[in-house]
Every structure is written in C-alpha cells, then in structure tokens.
Amino acid sequence: MTQNNITVIEDGKIKWIIHDSKGNQYRWEIPIQTYESYLQNITYPIQTIQYPEGKNQEIGEFSSYVKYSFANVIDEIYENCNGDADFIYEVWYVTSRLTVYSPDIGEHPRYAIETMTRGGGDCEDTVILMADMLRSSSYTRDWKIQMVYFDSKNPSDPVQVNHVAIAVDTGDYSGMLETTAKRVEDLIRWDACPVVGWWVDI
After folding, report:
1. How far apart are CA 193 and CA 5, in angstroms?
2. Helices 123-135 & 84-98, crossing angle to 10 degrees?
3. In the sheet where 198-201 sits, what is the strand order?
4. By Cβ atoms counted within 10 A, which residue in 52, 55, 73, 196 is the most buried?
5. pTM of the full predicted structure?
6. Is the residue at 172 inside a domain?
7. What are the Cα distances from residue 148, in Å, to 1, 66, 137, 143, 161?
C-alpha cells in the first residue's frame, strides 16, 4: 500500500513525514530560517564544456547545490535497507514520491530542501535532491557519485547538452540513474545505451 508523504509548516519549522517502499516512516524537519537562508544565497555557477569538434557550450554547474541536508535522517533509511543497491532504490523511491517533474519550472536550480518543499522540479532539481540524500549518509563516504551532463536525444553522439542524470559507483554496484523516473524501468534506462557526456564529481 502506498503511504502518503506529508509536508507541513508549523512551530517555525518545515516538517516532512516520508515513507520508503517498505512502509517505514521517517520524520525530518528544519527551521524556516534555515530554509530561507538557502534561498537568500542562491548562485548559479556556470561551467563551459567542449564538444569533440571544438564547439563550446555553457551549462549550469549543480554540484555546489549538494549540501548534505539529510544527515539527521538518511542513515536511518540506509539501516532499513538490504545493502547499497537497495538504499539507492529507496532514495529514488522517496524522491519519486515527493516530487512531480516540472520541465518548465525555470533555468535556476533549486536546493534539495526547496525541491522537497515545492514538491517538484526539473532534471537538475531531482539530481540535486537525490545526490544530496545519497551524500548525506555516513555509509556513502567512499562512493563515487557524479552528475552526468549529456544530450538525451543523442546520448552516444551529443549535439546539444540538455539533460543531467546521476551516476553512482559503490564499489559493488554502479549505474547511471534517471532521477525524474516514476518507474523502476525508467530509472535505469541510461544503462541500456552508451552515454557520451561530461561527468562531475559530487
């Protein structure tokens, strides 16, 4: 049975009640002032990538938006999982239930807590949210986690970078994940084809 996730604002705090796929419930909260401090410090770093033929393109640099926001709750989720791959699945599951994909939400990326509070975002917002959750855990310190910028229409021969996904290598498991996916088969779809892109460590 699918459990409802809840976001409320009360007593000067933003509070979430979230559930994993097994029905476990987690509570997490932050002061409103903390949320507001993120919004007051929004920057939009740019990076320049170069295609093999020499063409340059400016794209957003989103790794700086990962702030380890979930350190007080995420290990509890890991401890209810059956290993690394299951934890990655549960992080995606929570992300997929908390957000609605909004492709026209705007060019500026959002911090993880803003995407959770708004309940939606585009590809960079859900990548930031998933990356923040994964990086917040003490169990993932040795993992290689990267943002992958690529051309979703031409993944093996990029013409114009227009998408970002997340790549995770735990040592035992590795994969490139579609953070906007609502179905498991869509979550792993980029592993089914060679992707030529630009990989940025988180």
Report:
1. 34
2. 140
3. 174-177, 163-169, 144-150, 198-201
4. 73
5. 0.91
6. yes
7. 34, 15, 21, 16, 10
Q: What is the pLDDT of residues 97-124, one digit of tens each?
A: 888 877 654 457 889 988 988 888 899 9
3-state SS class at 39: helix
Contact 70, 112 (CB under 8 A): yes
Query: Does a structural domain hold residue 24?
Result: no
- Do residues 14 and 35 lie in contact, with contact meaning Cβ atoms separated by under 8 Å? yes
Q: Which domain holds residue 112?
A: 44-201
Residue 176 and residue 190 in contact, taking contact as beta carbons nearer than 8 Å: yes
Flag whether pLDDT at 7 surpasses 90.
no
Identify whether the C-beta of residue 129 lies closer than 8 Å to the C-beta of residue 116.
yes
Residue type, 21: S
